[in-house]
């Protein structure tokens, strides 16, 4: 079934006499869903996982799609997906790269009017054990054409890739492989993969064998959380486990920023001056998750118990020290913006065009805007198998995703 690209322009219903500078800014808010046609007779699951801005303000979205041939949502083929929109949500092009089957977009970097992507080849990674996943660098021109591989990283399972912008842009790559002489230990390496395809191995970090989450902390530094056993307690001899939030410098040196006793972090995020953790009890009790903010010196700034049943899935710290996070509620997504002191600035329900709305990422844009992206469509016990990619752009200060949505067909793949 062919999918048609539909743009949903956010329009507030206001009287002409009430127009203000805030209303004018809101004109650059938009909501688009887009996708592709899979093989005849099959379903195609499209989703958006990364967003970058070009120098002139266009928005490039990267993600992927999978064509399924079985009801269990497993058998099928997957391809990278890229699309480019104007700053107002007008589609310039969208592409599915069927010649890159089983390649997954790991990160996107914008350099002028060209973009670079690193693609992980997952064609051999279907088993439970980590296997080498070759990583290739490709250039994307203004029309969406993707180059042949400019260079490859071989011999590692690539866990993460982070785009680092600046005078000499590059991707910071986190890779693992079995450690020599051990059946269980892993060798973790950092690599700098620049847009000229030069690969430089960074100093190997030490003692990070229990990595739970990786985030880019800015300036080529990484933030990770790890679990630390701390004896046992009580008659049941229950093991005590703490979470350490660790800052890893580009040299490979590590520094413990904060320790959360007897709780584990589901996810972490950081701004230049603070770190956030969504912590939960390892006992599997009915205790609610806790959202905690720390300074980079390890001082706890504030904490809030979340509502029972709230499971934070996406979290993004802003340069200001504010936090934006989202979690599912029924068939929709809830997006919250939290102040530097921990107060709720706004809460918005996000509902897209399909029965379910899923967020896969949150990214700040220039001029005070925020991108929310993921996919929308049906769902069943085995996952989503016929979905559209989704991009919502809002004013960070306003957050008005609840404005009236007007549907306009602007093209089809």
Q: In words, what does this structure look like?
A:
By secondary structure, the chain is mainly β. The chain folds into three domains: 1-101 and 350-413, no CATH class; 110-202, no CATH class; 207-312, no CATH class. The protein is 1% helix and 56% strand. It has one helix spanning 21-26; strands at residues 5-11, 30-34, 43-53, 59-68, 76-85, 91-96, 103-111, 114-121, 135-140, 151-153, 157-164, 170-178, 186-194, 199-201, 211-218, 221-233, 238-248, 254-260, 264-271, 274-280, 290-295, 300-305, 314-317, 323-329, 332-338, 344-350, 356-365, 369-377, 388-395, 404-411. The strands form seven sheets. The chain has a six-stranded antiparallel beta sheet with strand order 27-28-29-2-1-30, with no helix packed on it.
Net shape: globular
Derived from helix and strand composition plus strand pairing, the structural class reads: mainly beta
Taking all residues together, what is the mean pLDDT? Answer: 79
Which segments are poorly predicted (pLDDT under 50) over 5 or more consecutive residues?
1-26, 402-413
| Quaternary form | single chain
Record field, number of beta strands: 30
Major sheet: 6 strands, antiparallel
Q: In DSSP terms, counting alpha (H) and pi (I) runs of 4 or more, how many helices?
A: 1
Strand content is: over 45%
Order of strands across the widest beta sheet?
Answer: 27-28-29-2-1-30
> How widely separated are the two ends?
12 Å
How many domain modules?
3
Cα-atom radius of gyration:
22 Å
